[in-house]
Specification:
- By secondary structure, the protein is of the alpha/beta class.
- Helices cover 40% and strands 24% of the residues.
- It is built from eight helices and twelve strands.
- Strands 3-2-1-4-5 form a five-stranded mixed beta sheet, with helices on both faces. A five-stranded mixed beta sheet has the order 10-9-8-11-12, with helices on both faces. Strands 6-7 form a two-stranded antiparallel sheet.
- The termini are close together.
- Its main location: cytoplasm.
Amino acid sequence: MILELDCGNSFIKWRVISRDRAGVACGGVVGSDLELIEAVRRKVQGLDACRLVSVRTDEETTRLTAQLGEAFAIECVWARPAAELAGVRNGYEEYQRLGLDRWLALVGAFHQARCACLVLDLGTAVTSDFVAGDGQHLGGFICPGVPLMRNQLRTHTRRIRYDDATAEQARHSLMPGRSTAEAVERGCSLMLQGFVHTQLELAREYWGASFQVFLTGGDAGTVAGLVPAARVAPDLVFVGLAIACPLS
């Protein structure tokens, strides 16, 4: 069994798959290294390998891999920056500075589509990446996602105070808000939708109708209705990770 990890700054997304990729045995999201080890230990027997992508510092990642090695007697393989991988050419002027999670997601998307792609990752931050049909990464955009927008308003505006349950209820409509929670939540949703529309327009300028859209990240479902033909791919980073770190 192979443990796969997507190590972000705040959370670790994990899953366990069989070597024949017959399916995902289990997985989840945790907030710390210790929680990860405990969760995997509860649900899995017989790990024999680990591969991971990390946006953390090398010191933090090394500490995590050492803990995993001690807990499960496995070696961890890291994804590394690359100028080219699996037919995709990194479009950044300094390829090492493109976030590894973004890089693996766009590699995974192109591997699946084999045509021009627009990859939208809708999480704490929102990113877009454009990959031409010949595998050339054209670059992309980064902006705050809904969680960041919401938290900034709550932090810097004294009168904006409401709980998560109120926020969830406020998002059920996009009519003009009649409370602060409704105004903020619906305003953030509209900003996210506007970003998606702009990316689609730019992709059409590049490729007409001949491109595939991939949606990933926690808020992917909230905009899926705007792009009916899009592929919602929550594990897109793991697709790229398997390409970057094949295990025999």
